[in-house]
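In the current project phase, our protein records have gained a structure token line. A sample record follows, to show the layout:
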Amino acid sequence: MKRSKIILFFLSLILLSCTKKIDKDFISSNDIFNDITNLKKYDNVQKINADTLIKIKASNKEYIIEGYINKNLNKKTGWWTIHDINKINKVRLQYIDFENKENINQYIFYKNNFIDSVRSKFYSLKKNGYILNYYFHTPKSKESVLSANLYYIILDENNNILKESKIENKINKSHYYLFKLETPIAKKVMIKSLFSETLNVNDKSLGTNEILTEDLIVP
């Protein structure tokens, strides 16, 4: 696949998040998260300028939120935190700009400061020599999983494509998937990938968990 097709492939992907009710207080819906982080719903809003970003801290009778807004794009960016007013529950959200829209790429639920991976959608990366272990966590669902794949490209410092590939993961009953990638020897590289889990539901927009990654790997 040529570079233009690779770039088009990644840029044309629409981030979809599986919408499931979690409990009466916090649910993992992008619409709900965006509603909670809507600053118009907060009377007590603090804004601090920080270079190209505006740091936000706001509270109302239900929630306390913190995060950043990109000044140039006027959009939420990076990691945001939502606490309930009693500070028992917490959620961290990663906002990314994709196709000129705010998208929630990852969300991590906490209960008493411990990660609740059963309700969360996020990834972690562990390096072991030239082997990279990518762990992708997805929310528990009563629906069966049809597929779980990782599409990735490895770029050098000059943005040349060193490798492009797809890894298919065996379906398992756990809430995470492990993908192993091998990096070129003694080179600084950028790895960009799309993880996609497809569930067996009629509405595909509700049956796909996707995470975009971008990691600079230094030998």
